[in-house]
Amino acid sequence: MELIQIYQCLCDPTRLRILHLLAQTPLCVCHFQEILDEPQVKISKHLAYLRERGMVVAEREQNWMIYSLPKKRDAELTANLKCLQDCVQADPVFKRDLRMLAKVSAKSDAPAGALVR
Amino acid sequence: MELIQIYQCLCDPTRLRILHLLAQTPLCVCHFQEILDEPQVKISKHLAYLRERGMVVAEREQNWMIYSLPKKRDAELTANLKCLQDCVQADPVFKRDLRMLAKVSAKSDAPAGALVR
DNA sequence: AGAGCATATACCCGCACAGGAATACGTCAA
DNA sequence: TTGACGTATTCCTGTGCGGGTATATGCTCT
Q: A3-106 domain in CATH 1.10.10.10?
């Protein structure tokens, strides 16, 4: 019953914010640090948690690790990510994250693989 | 951020099965015991967990406690319950639960408030 | 080789929760 | 009132996770 794993990934606020951002674009760890305003350890550990459960994939690009949603997603993951997007529309925290993403994206001192639009 | 609470409720297999069943019909604790084949304590504690977080409501009918989904559900809960239903269609455990529900329902030694169709 | 950057891991603590055993509570019937 | 039944709660144990500090790893440039 791997649906459980999906819900386990979704039941932490930081991970929710991470997944919400990844639904927009691939990002590297330092982007998350800046957008979420959380310490590096915290981000990194939540990403490891998500990676171990196949919710995100990571790819190294020089110094940076680019995280993204897996290209091949099974139905459960797809459905739940969509549901998350729907639920989150009005929430100030998530809206703020999107604004911060735009700001970071504008600076564009990013590795080539991240922040693709 | 109460979305989190929803996901926290969904991240246990027993609770998933309970909610899936309640999406069909109100049920009392002894029904869950029989359908899920789990001890009374376990069922009761998971129901308490769900109740504290507003995912289910309980109503006493003589000796029995009838559990059901709240009539008034906010958008997040509705969306996620629907998503759960979709994700669960093919899963053998959940399909088996539905068959057991039908069986229990057929016996119909149930309190009037539960097993309404 | 060394420094500097980006990221990951190890170790620690505290807490919440899953699960079981035993017991308490609420309701009804005799 | 007593007993039976359905359900809830208390107490206990083990485990997993969130968070922080410190340190390790990997890559790049000099």
A: yes
CA distance A40 to A76: 30
Q: Estimate in Å the CA B102 to C1' C15 gap, whole number.
A: 41
Nucleotides of D under 7 A from a protein CB: 5-10, 17-22, 26-28
Pick the CATH number of B3-104 from 1.10.10.10, 3.30.70.360, 3.40.50.700, 3.30.300.180: 1.10.10.10
pLDDT reported for residue A112: 60
The nearest alpha carbon in chain A to B14 belongs to: A4
Closest alpha carbon to A104 in A34, A22, A14: A34
Tens of pLDDT, residues A5-42: 999 999 999 999 999 999 999 999 999 999 999 999 99
Please report residues of A whose CB lies closer than 8 A to that of B87.
3, 75-76, 79-80
Taking CB atoms and an 8 Å limit, are B11 and A4 in contact across chains? Answer: yes
Is residue A88 within 8 Å of A20, Cβ to Cβ? yes
Q: Residue ranges of the domains in chain A?
A: 3-106
- pLDDT tens per residue, range B30-81: 999 999 999 999 999 999 999 999 999 999 999 999 999 999 999 999 999 9
CA-based end-to-end distance of chain B: 34
